[in-house]
Amino acid sequence: LAEAERLMRLRIIEKWMAKGVTFIDPASSFVGGEVKIGKDTTVYPYTFLEGKTTIGARCVIGPSVRLIDSRIGKEVEIQYAVVRDSTVEDRASLGPFCSLRAGSRIKRGSKVGSFVEIKKSEIGEGSKVPHLSYVGDAVIGKNVNVGAGTVTCNYDGVKKNRTVIEDDVFVGSDTMLIAPVRIGKGAVTGAGSVITKNVPPYSLGLERSEQKNIEGWTKKKKQDRKKCK
Fold first, then answer.
1. How many CB atoms sit inside 10 A of residue 96's CB?
2. Catalytic residue of the set 66, 84, 131, 182
């Protein structure tokens, strides 16, 4: 059975190569029988294309990518990523090391970067979620920048709640968005903020306790250690 599977897999890959798809290493690529791939797409090693996945022309897929029942547009770049039952529109980029869960839509020209998880959310055209973030049950508009460490806190222990981020928003690093919440067009959230209320358009949403500096603290600590010795 393993040998039969290997032969069938190579036949499928050879069929796509004859139609203008490049496989860097056919022996380490896996393509299902219902998958469709556009011309001039390049597939790197250790890529798994499964279910009814469709890939547009001139894409770069891999290395180490798994696509399951997903729709990939033209000129998309994906590396070191898992995409399940989602849509990625033209000229978007994913990875390295990101995960798209079912029901996600990455719109034209947007970016999902390193160590980002997207769940049942829409990322608008030209928007970026570059790294270390979780976006769940959210709608993000156009030209939004989501800072590192941002989390849409969508689950209150009973139900999932929605976060809406309108166009041209800048979300500061390590912002916690406590859903349901809306960030208005052109607004900014300060880094390290826990946002529990709607932020009006073109406003700054900021939630921080006041910083306190204790002068001479480290010197006193060193002196205390010497006394203990």
1. 14
2. 131
